[in-house]
């Protein structure tokens, strides 16, 4: 019955929403004030699309039954990722992981490379993994994704339980989840993240009952429930396949860049005086023809190793011929080549041609011999048939500061399945102050937008349309910051200036708007079957500066190559008193709303505005102020200290929170 009523309200919401927004575009715009009228209707259109994507998500709400037992031969590695978290916190989680009933190996993956952490792990019979000798904690390499990728290469379990340093697992977590892998196409089982240091009123909005409930259950119905970074079990085979596919793609991309750079360097070399020599011209022609042939073979799907081998041999022959003919021009060009940074390790784990090196190589006026030596160096850097070094693969995606969503999307694109197990099987720690919460939310949003800009799910051909839209809906939600600015501005403009963005607040407006809003809210109530959603709705609007910053910084990172820092979320409350500066934009908006409220009432009493419009906008301002008020409590929040609780300092988990568990 839940699915029936949910679908009914989805249909009603879409019909009423389309009716309202279409009327807004076609019949209600105040074109004399287009500068606010058009942004407002665009914001309303954005919100309609957002609720339609939510409706599509919960349309296939999946309530799973407990899986059958897994074969007792299944081998499991439990990974606990850490960088700089307190040792006692990490060990509390590690010891709980060691006590998981299913036979397994427990590993602490310490990117901080702390000797005391190693000593504690080894003294308690727990495995310890850190990066290689070239790893320095001060310069993280792909952060958590790199840490996990490294551990994959030194462990062997068929399945991997991944836990953040603060997520204490239940002893039966594997007993209740491994059975899903009886389906040999299941690659991922995600369980909820639940926080035990959060009070009932959840002032920082840390609990996510809507996401770890109807949204993930809905995505599960579309085979699009995704990896959330912790409390998840993954199949090693799927990750390794993903790494191999990524390696091939990265190698092919690198070969393409190398061939393009080679042809560009040769064209530049033709402009030099030496190129007029018949022998030199012949050699350049041969090498250029070899690169063009290689490009053709690449498009036809030929072996990458054969392609690069043949081109490199052709370049070798040309260089030897020219050196034998004229050694004098070699010295200066070789010095230039030695100074160039030709390659770096790319996202796929392979050696790729660095962009700045390609630009310098393409832009310089090379001598013929220097050009050929540069072509040789570039091709050597990306050669796929070298036997003197290991070629690493990187299964977990490193295109984003949040590796989880990108990895899950790539796994789905390979045809694997995912499962959302709706039962709390690990207990974690939420941020205990506003600054930490904002840092965490910003990283999540930045990572999500990076994935959108780099691997837009709507154009990933190997995903089903349901999967594309499920990933896109999460990404789309982070654009709400721009809509929020318009929603705050519109009532301020009307109450202070008397400018209405709609042609009139007539019967036609109310008969369309009110039913849509009522049914929209009822949809959340029905889909959530009683779970609290108001705190989440507040923060979706109140954190508009965070969402806008995430979008702009992610775009800057992708388009201009400026790096985003990876900030580990602190697991303890940060020192200091209330930090009102953290919410300065929201304070300014709240003050403007309050001033507009007073001015609007004065204008009404003075007969300068009409009553209905004032009443509607006063109600709008009141709603906005209630939304923003959550941040006052967040700034003043001093953490949650229960009288009695488990080791992490939180309350005992109430029994009722696992009702409707699966």
* CATH fold-level name of the largest domain: Spore Coat Polysaccharide Biosynthesis Protein SpsA, Chain A
Structural domain tally = 3
CATH architecture of the largest domain: Alpha-Beta Complex
Instruction: Please tell me how large the radius of gyration is.
Output: 29 Å
Characterize the structure shown.
There is one protein chain. This protein is an alpha/beta fold. It has three domains: 2-59 and 471-556 and 580-636, no CATH class; 76-175 and 177-244 and 391-424, Spore Coat Polysaccharide Biosynthesis Protein SpsA, Chain A (Alpha-Beta Complex), CATH 3.90.550; 273-371, no CATH class. Helix content is 55%, strand content 7%. Helix 7 (236-269) packs antiparallel against helix 8 (278-299) and helix 18 (534-542) packs across helix 21 (611-636). The two termini are 16 Å apart.
Please outline what is shown here.
It is globular and about 95 Å long.
What order do the helices and strands come in, and which of them pair?
Layout: H1 2-27, H2 34-59, E1 76-82, H3 87-98, E2 105-110, H4 115-123, E3 127-129, H5 143-152, E4 159-164, E5 168-169, E6 186-190, E7 194-195, H6 211-221, E8 232-235, H7 236-269, H8 278-299, H9 304-325, H10 330-339, E9 343-345, E10 351-353, H11 355-363, H12 368-381, H13 403-413, E11 417-420, E12 426-428, H14 434-454, H15 465-477, H16 480-497, H17 507-528, H18 534-542, H19 544-560, H20 584-605, H21 611-636
Helix pairs in contact: 1-2, 1-17, 2-6, 2-15, 2-16, 7-8, 7-11, 7-12, 8-9, 9-12, 10-12, 14-19, 16-19, 16-20, 16-21, 18-21, 20-21
């Amino acid at each position: 019955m839940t699915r029936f009523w949910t679908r009914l309200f989805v249909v009603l919401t879409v019909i009423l929403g389309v009716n309202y927004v279409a009327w807004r575009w076609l019949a209600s715009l105040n074109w004399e004030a287009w500068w606010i009228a058009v942004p407002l209707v665009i914001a309303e259109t954005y919100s309609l699309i957002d609720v339609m994507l939510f409706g599509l998500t919960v349309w296939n709400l999946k309530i799973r039954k407990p899986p059958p037992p897994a074969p007792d031969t299944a081998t499991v590695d439990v990974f606990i990722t850490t960088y700089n978290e307190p040792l006692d916190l990490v060990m509390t989680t590690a010891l709980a992981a060691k006590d998981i009933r299913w036979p397994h190996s427990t590993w602490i993956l310490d990117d901080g490379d702390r000797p005391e952490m190693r000593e504690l792990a080894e003294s308690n019979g727990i495995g310890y993994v850190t990066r290689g000798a070239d790893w320095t904690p001060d310069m993280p390499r792909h952060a958590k994704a790199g840490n996990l990728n490294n551990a994959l290469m030194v462990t062997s379990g068929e399945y991997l339980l991944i836990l953040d340093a603060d997520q204490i697992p239940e002893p039966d977590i594997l007993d209740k989840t491994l059975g899903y892998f009886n389906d040999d196409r299941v690659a991922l089982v995600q369980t909820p993240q639940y926080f035990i240091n959060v009070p009932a009123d959840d002032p920082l909005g840390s609990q996510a009952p809507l996401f770890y409930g109807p949204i993930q259950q809905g995505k599960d119905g579309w085979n699009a429930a995704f990896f959330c970074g912790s409390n998840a079990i993954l199949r090693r085979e799927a990750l390794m396949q993903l790494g191999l596919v990524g390696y091939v793609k990265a190698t092919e991309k690198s070969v393409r860049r190398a061939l393009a750079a080679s042809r560009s360097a040769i064209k530049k070399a033709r402009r030099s005086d030496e190129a007029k020599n018949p022998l030199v011209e012949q050699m350049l022609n041969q090498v250029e023809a070899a690169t063009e042939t290689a490009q053709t073979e690449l498009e036809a799907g030929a072996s990458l190793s054969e392609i690069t081998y043949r081109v490199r041999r052709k370049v070798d022959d040309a260089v030897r011929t020219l050196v034998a003919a004229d050694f004098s021009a070699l010295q200066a060009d070789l010095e230039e080549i030695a100074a160039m940074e030709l390659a770096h390790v790319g996202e796929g784990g392979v050696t790729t041609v660095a962009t700045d090196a390609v630009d310098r190589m393409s832009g310089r006026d090379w001598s013929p011999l220097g050009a050929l030596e540069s072509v040789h160096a570039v091709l050597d850097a990306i050669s796929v048939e070298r036997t003197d070094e290991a070629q690493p693969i990187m299964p977990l995606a490193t295109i984003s500061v949040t590796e989880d969503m990108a990895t899950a999307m790539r796994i789905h694109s390979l045809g694997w399945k995912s499962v959302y197990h709706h039962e709390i099987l690990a207990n974690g720690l939420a941020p205990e102050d506003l600054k930490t919460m904002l840092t965490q939310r910003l990283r999540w949003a930045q990572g999500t937008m990076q994935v959108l800009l780099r691997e837009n799910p709507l154009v990933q051909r190997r995903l089903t349309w349901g999967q594309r839209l499920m990933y896109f809906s999460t990404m789309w939600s982070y654009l709400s910051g721009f809509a929020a600015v318009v929603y705050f501005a519109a009532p301020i403009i009307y109450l202070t200036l008397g400018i209405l963005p709609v042609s009139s607040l007539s019967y036609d407006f109310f008969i369309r708007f009110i039913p849509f809003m009522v049914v929209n809210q009822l949809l959340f109530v029905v889909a959530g079957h009683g779970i609290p959603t108001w705190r989440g709705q507040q923060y979706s609007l109140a954190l508009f500066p965070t969402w806008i910053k995430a979008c702009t910084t992610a775009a800057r990172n992708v388009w201009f190559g400026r790096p985003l820092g990876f900030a580990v979320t602190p697991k303890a409350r940060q020192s200091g008193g209330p930090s009102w500066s953290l919410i300065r934009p929201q304070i300014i908006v709240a003050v403007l709303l309050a001033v507009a409220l007073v001015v609007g009432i004065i204008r009404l009493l003075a007969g300068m505005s009409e009553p209905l419009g004032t009443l509607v906008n006063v109600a709008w301002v009141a709603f906005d102020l209630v939304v923003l008020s959550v941040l006052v409590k967040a700034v003043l929040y001093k953490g949650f200290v229960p009288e009695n609780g488990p080791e992490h300092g939180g309350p005992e988990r109430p029994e009722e929170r696992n009702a409707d568990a699966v």
